[in-house]
Amino acid sequence: MDSIYSVNIERAVLSSILFNPEEIEDVLGVLKPKDFYLPAHQKIFDVMVKLHSSDMPIDEEFIRKRVDSKDVDDSILLEILSANPITNTLAYVREIKDGAVKRELANLATTIKKVALEDETSANDALDVVQGELYKISTDSATSELKNMEVVTGDTLSYIKKMKELGNKHLIGETTGFYDLDKRTTGFNQGDLVIIAARPAMGKTALVLNMCLKNVEAGKGVIFFSLEMPAEQLMLRMLAAKTSIPLQNLRKGDLDDNQWSNLNGAFEDLNRKKLFVDDGGSVNINQLRARVRKLAQNEENKISMVIIDYLQLMQGVGNKDRHQEVSDISRGLKMLAREMKIPIIALSQLNRGLENRPDKRPMLSDLRESGAIEQDADIIMFVYRDDVYKEREEARKEKEASDKGEEYKSKFVNKPVEEAEIIIGKQRNGPIGTVKLDFQKQFTRFIDKENANDAPIEVVFESIADTNKETNIEIPNIL
């Protein structure tokens, strides 16, 4: 057990703080009271922390007044006071932290045995418990040190040089699949949590499938968690977008010879791509994290994006109210995006309250459980198609007239291509505004509007200069 704790090292660190109280600032960046092995040392360090936060002296007298003699024997304090002075306190602190993490892992081994052999728990629930505990240990053991200005400016200069090498291109991250959207966002970047929200029937699943298709066709690896529909339905929609065969024809198998040939070619192409679909119907943040890590460990998978359809269908962990569950899920997704250095795109439902407004374009306040989602997200986009509401309104008028025995002819014209608005409601590192796309209903496909490269884009800037310039990068439409 010597490898997972050292009373002498703990004693030396506490002694160092007593003789140099300003050192507690550095120690607090790494250690918590529970990281000490000896209970008496935990109590003493806890008192030191409280004295420091109260701007009171950290000395022998103040500590003695605040510790219970039953918990901390006089001899322990004397041993701390008589400990040999040390010069590199942080090296000792890291040893304590290392031992604390190893003890946590040893305790986890006991937990694994208990849930696997002793408790009447299903295998899935046992895995959930273990993954949750391991995640707590990994996040608690993560430490970061303050960077001085020389380090920060050096890192920033390296970033600027990297961007310069790209030739001032507007696409820096993974493509959204659309020219103007890439131009507004620079693509989906490392560590981004992207929320795409809409009311039902607006086409948010179709939009992310189009994004997914564009990335896998570029040789990137994408993980798609489909909590609402089976993988076969997702693939039918993707095939309609890829082959220009109407979705209804694919569903019925009503294809002519050319379409069959086109479909076979699409299957052969997709079979070589890195798309991974989880359509189990239920997943919590611990399970999702474990599955993403497992696939990402294999570099051949080239995982560069994760998509979740949709956030409100994810399960919580533990007995918490739904608001807290969504907060934990949202924060967990953001932390996973940063850890894996990839964008995570999560679809979200909107509150139906917006249906009562004359202008039904979504706003941030329309997000369900919006507080946590709005806080954690780097980009929030809304999908809006005005024709959906026009069709519903005309259908309502027609029904009301029919109920009264009157005649009413619907003024709605069902067009094969409808205009769609992608409203950027939040962008942490860029402008907000609206990008217009066309939606081809029979192919469940969003495409850039004709002459998109030249069309003006409606943009609202949030105290940020738009430095995007025209480039020669080519982002072709989905064909």
Describe this entry's structure for a reader:
The chain is of the alpha/beta class and 479 residues long. It has two domains: 2-141, Orthogonal Bundle (DNAb Helicase, Chain A); 168-384 and 415-460, P-loop containing nucleotide triphosphate hydrolases (Rossmann fold). Helix content is 47%, strand content 13%. It has helices at 7-19, 24-28, 39-53, 60-66, 74-81, 89-118, 123-141, 149-165, 179-185, 204-217, 231-243, 247-252, 257-270, 285-297, 322-340, 370-376, 386-403; strands spanning 193-198, 221-226, 274-278, 303-309, 344-349, 379-384, 417-427, 432-440, 445-448, 458-460. Strands 1, 2, 3, 4, 5, 6, 7, 8, 9 and 10 form a ten-stranded mixed beta sheet that branches. Helix 1 (7-19) crosses helix 6. It is elongated. Residues 454-479 have low confidence and may be disordered. Belongs to the helicase family. DnaB subfamily. It catalyses: ATP + H2O = ADP + phosphate + H(+). It is an enzyme of class 5 (isomerase). Residues 167-453 form the SF4 helicase domain.
Which properties best describe this structure?
single chain; 479 residues; alpha/beta; DNAb Helicase, Chain A; Rossmann fold; ten-stranded mixed sheet; 17 helices; 47% helix; elongated; disordered C terminus
Number of domains: 2
The CATH homologous superfamily of the largest domain: P-loop containing nucleotide triphosphate hydrolases
Question: In the CATH hierarchy, what is the architecture of the largest domain at level 2?
Answer: 3-Layer(aba) Sandwich
Helix and strand pattern? HHHHHHHHHEHEHHHEHEHEHEHEEEE
CATH secondary-structure class of the largest domain:
Alpha Beta
Rg, Cα atoms, Å: 29 Å
User: Which sheet architecture does the biggest sheet show?
Assistant: 10 strands, mixed
Helix/strand/pairing category: alpha/beta
Average residue-wise pLDDT: 82
Number of helices: 17
Proportion of residues in helical segments: 40-55%
Shape: elongated
Low-confidence sequence ranges: 454-479
Care to count the β-strands?
10
User: DSSP strand (E) fraction?
Assistant: 5-15%
- The rounded distance between the terminal residues' Cα atoms is 63 Å
Enzyme class: isomerase
InterPro entries: DNA_heli_DnaB-like_N_sf (IPR036185), DNA_helicase_DnaB (IPR007692), DNA_helicase_DnaB-like_C (IPR007694), DNA_helicase_DnaB-like_N (IPR007693), DNA_helicase_N/primase_C (IPR016136), P-loop_NTPase (IPR027417)
EC number: 5.6.2.3
Protein name: Replicative DNA helicase
